[in-house]
Each structure stands twice: as structure tokens, then as C-alpha cells.
Amino acid sequence: MDTPVAMLASYAAHDDRSRGRRWPEPPPAYRSEFQRDRDRIIHSTAFRRLVYKTQVFVNHEGDLYRTRLTHSLEVSQIARTAARALGLNEHLVEAICLAHDLGHTPFGHAGQDALNECMRDYGGFEHNLQSLRVVDELEEKYAEFRGLNLTFETREGILKHCSARHARELGEVGRRFLDRTQPGLEAQLANLADEIAYNHHDIDDGLRAGLIELSELDALDCFGEPYEEVHARYPELEGRRLIYEILRRMINRVVTDLVETTRAQLAGASPQDIDAVRGAGRALAGFSEATREANLKLKHFLNAGVYQHFRVLRMTRKARDVIETLFEKFFGDVRLMPPEFLQAAREEEAALQESGRARVVADYIAGMTDRYAILEHERILDPRTHT
Ligand code: MG
Fold first, then answer.
1. Ligand 1 centroid to 346 CA: how many Å?
2. Ligand 1 center to residue 194 CA distance, Å?
């Protein structure tokens, strides 16, 4: 259901006050500007690939784990709920959430770290910078421009972090990292919803994979009350249904805290419009102190119990090897890449020397799904494999 514009708070992103697109286009007939952004994201090639990209567990390990696609949908659904409750622009928040991981490499964070290491002498690799690069440059869909030509507000939300050097190269959308200002509230919410989503779905996936046990969660502040509540009401409940009843209560509590804390901070700062939000001097969307601490403990728990589990580390190690090998081979001989990437590598190398060549190799690797990267690795190394 659409949010009527009348329900939007003054500090929300309003369509008619958008900073616009890099290439001006006539307004859409039946949709808002931000709905059009969302639709362009959903129709993009990079979006379809998210289904075959790892969140924590490599895609072929099982059909029940989160992928980048289901993660992005969970982020979007959490952020939309909070946006509606706060009178913010649900369409914009949805566009940002669905696009936030478009630039992610195969194999989750292991892949991103490995590619960043390979790119160390050539400007590095950062996945949210790459998400912006996907929507600004790499998607080839329109006759009149490169990329998807999204609104400033969606691009602002996609670019979560950025070094000063990159910020200078990015112009207007990077400026807040030099001015030390904030993005709009929709962007702030999308960022926090990302954290809520992965903290909770990684517990779920960790339990499902048998890396952690439900009883280990006992040590966490955020677990106690939801568990007591479920246990009191359904003392016989066990298995998946017990896990889900607890998890949904945990998510609900964090989202409620986010909405209430943000509402109180907005009441205190009373920003008149989105520019006042940007210039508020601090983020106005956020969690209470207690929830921030609980989130931190949850992250430590996940790190020790799931992300550093030997079974996950083995996968991480293999993923690094695949990415490093692919980079070394393609960077060493760009003719091993498909023709469109070979051509791009030659053009970029003519303009930016080795850094240009490296960037195109990184674009090629970052765009791969898990299984495509594994297949390419095989095709490059195994003489018995057909190419
Ligand atoms: Mg994410």
C-alpha cells in the first residue's frame, strides 16, 4: 500500500523536493520518483545476482540459509515498518535497502576482504562504494545514460561509508564525508535496519547450521525476556517454532526501540526539513544506549560462535583463495576475461594505467555469483574443464 504524501513528516524526503537525477528525466506518470528508483533496482542485473551470493553461508551449502537477496528483502521490510511509523518516505527507504548490497562480492565478507587486499595498491575495494558504482556506472540498460540514473537521495543512502579520497572523486554525493554532515533519515534507517536484519538472521542461520545452540543465547541481554515470555506462554514449544517465536520477539523489541528512540530524538531536535536532518550534527535515527550495548554483545557472540566457527573459517579460507587467484590471473592477462571486460580494461588502462586495469578486473570479480566464481576458478586452473 502506498504512503500518501500527506502522511509524510516535514523532515522526510519529499518527491517534489528531491535533488534530482544526474541526467534530468520527465517525472513518472503513475509512480513517485523513489518508486521509480526501486523499480529500476529490481529490474537490474545486479539485483537478480543477489540470490546466488553468500550472506554468511556459501550458496551451495544449503537452500534454507539467507542469501544477499533474502537479506536485502528482510532489511527492506524492517526499514519500511520503521519508516511508516515515523512518517518517513517508505518508497525511498525501500529503494535504498534493496540496493544496499548490489556491489557485494561473491562469498560475503571473506570475498570483500580478499578483493580489497588484491586492490590495495589500486584504490582498494569497498562494497558499498561498489554498490554506488553499480547503479551509477555498471548497469547497462538505458540508451541515454550509463547506470540507472537514480535520484540523489537513493544514491546518498547507498553510500554508507566513504574515505575522504573517494569522497572527493564522487562530487556532490560524497560531500557529506568531507563536511561531516549526515544523510537523510531514510538513509539512516536503512543502515540500522541492515544491522537488525543480519544480527537476527545470522542467529537463525547459525542455529540451523548447528554452529550454535539455543541455550548459548542465554548469556545475551536481548534473549532473556523474549525467551521467558515464550516459555511462559508455550511451555511445551520446541524446535524451529520455539526459535522463531523468540527471534520475532527479539526483532520486534529492537525495532520498537529504534522507532521510539528516533521519535524522541526528532522531537528534541525538531528538524524542519531533510536539510535540517543532514545538518543536525549527529544522526537522529538510532537505538537507546541499552539496546546499543545489547546489539554489541550480540555481535561479539555471533563473531565468536558463528563467523569464527571452524566450518565457516574453512569456507572463508577457500573463498579468499578463489578471489585471489582470479584477480592474479585476470590482472596478469586481461585477455582471459570475456571480450566486454577486456575492452573496458584496455580503455581504463589507457586512461588510468594499472589502477584502471585493476578496477575493471575488480568489477568483473565483484559482479560474480558464488557459483560463477567457483566455475571461473575451475575454468582458469583446470585444463580438463571446458571454457
Ligand atoms: Mg547488508
1. 33
2. 5
The grid coordinates of residue 226 equal 523474549
Using the predicted structure, report yes or no on whether residue 33 has a pLDDT greater than 90. Answer: yes
Q: How far is the CA of 99 from the centre of ligand 1 (A)?
A: 9
pLDDT for 217-269, tens place per residue?
Answer: 998 989 999 999 999 999 999 999 999 999 999 999 999 999 999 999 999 99
Distance 348 CA to ligand 1 centre (A): 29
pLDDT digits (tens, 9 = 90+) for 291-326: 999 999 999 999 999 999 998 898 889 999 999 999
Separation of 110 CA from ligand 1 center, angstroms? 14
Domains and CATH numbers, the chain: 27-311 (1.10.3210.10), 325-381 (no CATH)
Find the 46 Cα to ligand 1 centroid distance in Å.
14
| Contact of 247 with 203, CB cutoff 8 Å | yes
Residue 14 DSSP SS3? coil
Measure 298 CA to ligand 1 centroid, in angstroms: 17
Backbone angles phi, psi at 259, to 5 degrees: -65, -45
**Dist. CA 199–CA 75, nearest whole Å:** 11
Distance (angstroms) between ligand 1 centre and the Cα of 105 equals: 12
- The angle at the Cα of 280, spanning 298 to 253, to the nearest 5 degrees, equals 30
**What is the whole-number distance in angstroms between the Cα of residue 336 and the centre of ligand 1?**
31
Binned at pLDDT 50, 70 and 90, residue 62 comes out as low
Give me the pLDDT at residue 66, please: 84
The count of other CB atoms within 10 Å of the CB of residue 181 is 14
Average pLDDT, stretch 146-172?
93
